[in-house]
Amino acid sequence: MRIIMMAGKLAWVMFMVVSLAVRSLATVYTVGDASGWTIGVDYGTWSASKTFVVGDTLVFNYGSGHTVDEVKQSDYKTCTIGNSITTDNKGKTSILLQTSGTHFFICAIIGHCGSGMKLSVNVLLPSTTNNSTSPTSFPSTTPTPTPTATSGVYPTTTTGATPYMIPDSVVSSSRSVLSIFRGGGLVFAGVVFVNLVHFL
């Protein structure tokens, strides 16, 4: 009986370690780096130097008079406004990249997209064995609720469905926890080991 209890505790601890380790691999990208989301930045060059994977977050920092709109590829190419999948204008927008494939963002203020305020990012599936370049989507097992506010994280979709929103307060808390794991992986492993010994 004691062996079964120990095995159950070990399985639980291993599940938690793997879950936290996978999530801690996500990266938070500030779009445009120090320049932010504004006219006059070459976002094509900015995104070309990065590798985006499912679970990463894009943070758009911008002043009043701008928006962040996720759009379909056709609207991105023609800078068409009014058909956005999601939109935000609060000055700081965080987008959680939940699906692989190419995602398209524009500023929907007339003339801004045409002046270069547009970004496309190719999002890959996380991989531990190879660097896959063929985008596919994670299957969704739950329906996607409609957002009720205009600030927070808008997970992206490739199907055009309206994504749900995660409030900024949750995103900030999650980033704080993730930064602890990224910066202290060895310490985290030590804590897990001590707890494992304690459970056994």
UniProtKB/TrEMBL annotation:
Residues covered by the Phytocyanin domain: 27-125
Pfam families with a match to the protein in the record: Cu_bind_like
Keyword rRNA-binding: no
Biased composition (Low complexity): 130-151
This protein's UniProt keywords: Membrane, Signal, Transmembrane, Transmembrane helix
GO cellular component labels: plasma membrane
Transmembrane segments: 177-197
InterPro entries registered for this protein in UniProt: Cupredoxin (IPR008972), Phytocyanin-like (IPR039391), Phytocyanin_dom (IPR003245)
MF (Gene Ontology): electron transfer activity; metal ion binding
Domain of life (superkingdom): Eukaryota
Residues spanning the signal sequence: 1-26
UniProt-annotated stretches for the region Disordered: 130-153
Stated name of the protein: Blue copper protein isoform X1
Natural source organism: Spinacia oleracea (Spinach)
Lineage of source species: Eukaryota, Viridiplantae, Streptophyta, Embryophyta, Tracheophyta
